[in-house]
Amino acid sequence: MKAFFLEYAKRIAFRNPSLNWLSRPRYPYNLDPYQLAFLIQSLEGTRYLEGAVLEVGVARGLTTVFLNTHLRRTSDKRSYLCVDTFEGFLEEDIVHEINNRGKNGNLAYKGFGYNDVHVFKKNMATLGFHNVKVVKKDANQLNEADLGKISVALLDVDLYKPTLSALRIIFKCLEPGGVILVDDVMDGSLFEGAAQAYNEFCTEVGLFPMVLGRRSGIIEKAS
Hints:
By secondary structure, this protein is of the alpha/beta class. The protein is 41% helix and 17% strand. A seven-stranded mixed beta sheet has the order 3-2-1-4-5-7-6, sandwiched between helices. Helix 7 (160-173) links the parallel strand 4 (150-155) and strand 5 (174-183). Helix 2 runs parallel beside helix 3.
């Protein structure tokens, strides 16, 4: 009976002009499809590695759920480490963008402050993702003890200072054959600090920048 009423409610939502926005398909992810596809390919290509999968900058956790669903359905037992300030962008990083990189203090920098580490942990547990470890920490302050061995990493912190700092420590922890995807590696955007940090880091370690699509910097550690 419950299924009948649910189906009837869906029929009303689909066919009533004032309600059909409820049934309109949506793309829920902040990452582009090619980025998600690359991450899945990277997970599959590194199954022989034992290091954790790392996500720095998790927002609501939509990508976290997407990637952990893949790990679960492919019986991949790697742990998954989520790192975030859970307070949005930190003031010192915003000040650096304004004073050192000529940004204008756009209110978009105030984003992501809605998140809460306890809510995030509860949501992951409710979904049954018990392999997810959550660390509330500034990306500028990460160290090897926080991360351990890393096989695949997604770095999405937008601003220059935390991107460069995180890249330095993630690369140290990255296993040979491991992969890092850096989001927002594109000039001309509000968050082009990630692009500057990515390019500087590649120069620092002697790697040639590899840009996937329109906004992804790729780093692969030689095996």
